[in-house]
Structure formats: structure tokens, C-alpha cells
Specification:
Elements lengths: L6 H14 L4 H30 L3 H38 L1
Subcellular location: Cell membrane
Membrane topology: Multi-pass membrane protein
Organism: Nosocomiicoccus ampullae
């Protein structure tokens, strides 16, 4: 999946279904594919601009590492929020 040779297209829908359920799978998958396409357009642009300015790829790698760390943090926050919502939903269903 990391090499992006089609593994994401088979794994992401299952991952989305596990996280959010299947009700909004199509919409969420569309958002993910849009973000993926945007990254495919913006990533090479960032690499080219940084390389033109520094004549080195080192800073580019640090920029992408920082972006990956931010994405990881966002992912962890979303997972924690999903767990919180599920817990609250279960508590509400028990009291009703």
C-alpha cells in the first residue's frame, strides 16, 4: 500500500467502513480520492520549488516528514473523536 500500486484502492474503502461505517462510505471515499489527487499535483510542485531554491532535496524530505507527522496526529485525533462519539452513542442508547 505504501508504494501506491493500487493497494490503496482496495484497502481504503475497507478502512473507511471500519472507521465510519458504510452509510457515508461513498462520500468519504470521494474526499479521500480528491485529497490524494491534490497531493499528486501539489507534491511535485513543492519538490520542484524547494529544489530550485536550495539545489538540494534534503529540505524537501523534512517538509514531507513534517506533513506526515501532522497527518498522523490528525488521524489519531479523529480516531479518538470517533471512539468518544461511539461511547456517547452507546450511553444514550442504554438510557433510552
Amino acid at each position: 500500500m505504501i508504494s501506491c500500486y493500487g493497494g490503496g484502492f482496495s484497502a481504503i474503502p475497507a478502512y473507511i467502513a471500519d472507521l465510519f461505517g458504510t452509510k457515508q462510505l461513498g462520500a468519504i471515499h470521494g474526499y479521500i480520492l480528491t485529497a490524494w489527487a491534490l497531493a499528486g499535483l501539489v507534491g511535485p510542485f513543492i519538490v520542484a520549488k524547494v529544489y530550485e531554491a536550495t539545489q538540494s532535496y534534503d529540505i524537501t524530505l523534512y517538509i514531507f516528514v513534517a506533513m506526515f507527522v501532522v497527518a498522523l496526529i490528525i488521524s489519531l485525533v479523529i480516531r479518538a473523536d470517533i471512539r468518544k462519539i461511539k461511547r456517547e452513542s452507546e450511553l444514550n442508547n442504554q438510557t433510552v
